[in-house]
């Protein structure tokens, strides 16, 4: 994505609000909202949604429902956290949904014995070896994406859109177009080891904390912001930009592999359309959380809160009887709104 060289002044990363331009073309309210810190705005929206749906549905404000919201956030969140790191670097992975589906199918096929009619590619190996095979495949996919972008110089959107189609096709080939059940792998997705909260939620929290620490307190974190803001200046400063971005691609793919494994553990089977639409939700959450499509800006806290906003909204709409297609519509609309505010933040920042 970030293939053009910018000046340092144009591309410096920003964390807070900016002074509004003098132009009167934008409404005062819009400028005010856009200039708010992302976390503050998202907390305000989240609190408003919780209050509204608590009044609208007697079943919303309930511990089990909040656990359900957290669990629904977990699988996407595990992908979105390293994907935030990647987008801060000015790159994007649109193949995450297909990767998650492929990882789930790989796990199912690896643990299922060969059958000419149902699982022609079945390996029939144990859970442990199947996990190693799946994670290794995820790592290899991340390395492929990273190599294609950083070494060959291809655009990340093109590479990962191609991957979206390739990995979905491979999923259908492995599964022979069928849904494959997987046995003996349910604990990862449904167990509740502590405080009656499911394992995926704890994994999501752990991945979020790890990515936050990576961005805020390591040389790598400072480097990825610099690369996203101005790759040319980062190279002149001695940062190995290709290596920084390569690592981000690998981290995203490995986390996606983990998310795919969790999803098949939750549902007990792998479908050829598994993970479909994940990429839309991931990108929506990251942009809504304050990351910039041009790179150099974003935070784990913002993405975390944005995911909660999306899932609280979806859960609340379901509980209040809103048809499913309107929920899908709202997610697409939120993506457009998020990108619009991203562009507005850029305009506000350039007016300083």
In percent terms, what proportion of residues is strand? Answer: under 5%
Mean pLDDT: 86
Distance between the termini: 25 Å
CATH class: Mainly Alpha
> What fraction, in percent, of the residue positions are helical?
55-70%
Counting DSSP E segments of at least 2 residues, the number of strands comes to 2
CATH architecture: Orthogonal Bundle
Radius of gyration: 21 Å
Q: What is the CATH topology descriptor?
A: ABC transporter involved in vitamin B12 uptake, BtuC
Profile the largest sheet.
Answer: 2 strands, antiparallel
Question: Which secondary-structure class do the elements indicate?
Answer: mainly alpha
Summed up, the domain count is 1
**H and E order:** HHHHHHHEHHHHHEHHH
Low-confidence stretches: 3-26
Task: Note the total helix count.
Answer: 15
Indicate the overall shape.
globular
Strand order across the largest sheet: 1-2
């Amino acid at each position: 994505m970030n293939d053009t060289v910018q000046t340092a002044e144009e591309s410096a990363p920003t964390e807070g609000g900016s002074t509004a331009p003098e132009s009167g073309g934008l409404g005062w309210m819009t400028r005010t909202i856009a200039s708010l810190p992302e976390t503050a705005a998202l907390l305000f929206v989240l609190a408003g949604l919780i209050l509204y749906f608590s009044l609208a549905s007697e079943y919303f404000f309930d511990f089990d429902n909040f656990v359900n919201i957290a669990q629904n956030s977990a699988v996407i969140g595990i992908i979105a956290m390293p994907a935030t790191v990647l987008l801060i670097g000015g790159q994007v992975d649109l193949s995450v949904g297909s990767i998650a589906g492929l990882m789930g199918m790989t796990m199912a096929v690896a643990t299922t014995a060969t059958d000419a009619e149902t699982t022609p590619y079945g390996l029939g190996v144990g859970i442990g070896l199947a996990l190693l095979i799946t994670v290794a495949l995820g790592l290899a996919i991340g390395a492929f994406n990273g190599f294609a972008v950083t070494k060959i110089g291809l655009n990340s959107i093109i590479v990962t859109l191609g991957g979206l189609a390739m990995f979905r096709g491979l999923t259908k080939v492995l599964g022979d177009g069928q849904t494959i059940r997987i046995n003996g792998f349910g604990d990862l997705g449904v167990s509740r080891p502590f405080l009656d909260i499911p394992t995926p939620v704890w994994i999501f929290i752990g991945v979020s904390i790890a990515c936050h620490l990576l961005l805020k307190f390591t040389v790598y974190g400072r480097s990825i912001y610099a690369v996203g803001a101005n790759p040319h200046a980062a190279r002149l400063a001695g940062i190995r930009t290709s290596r920084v971005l390569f690592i981000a691609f690998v981290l995203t793919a490995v986390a996606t592999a983990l998310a795919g494994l969790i999803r098949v553990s939750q549902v007990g089977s792998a479908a050829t359309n598994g993970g479909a639409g994940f990429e839309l939700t991931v990108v929506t959450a990251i942009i809504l959380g304050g990351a910039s499509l041009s790179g150099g800006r974003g935070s784990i806290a913002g993405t975390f809160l944005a995911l909660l906003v999306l899932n609280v909204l979806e859960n609340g709409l379901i509980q209040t009887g809103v048809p499913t297609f309107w929920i899908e519509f709202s997610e697409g609309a939120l993506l457009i709104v998020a990108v619009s505010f991203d562009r507005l933040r850029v305009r506000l920042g350039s007016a300083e």
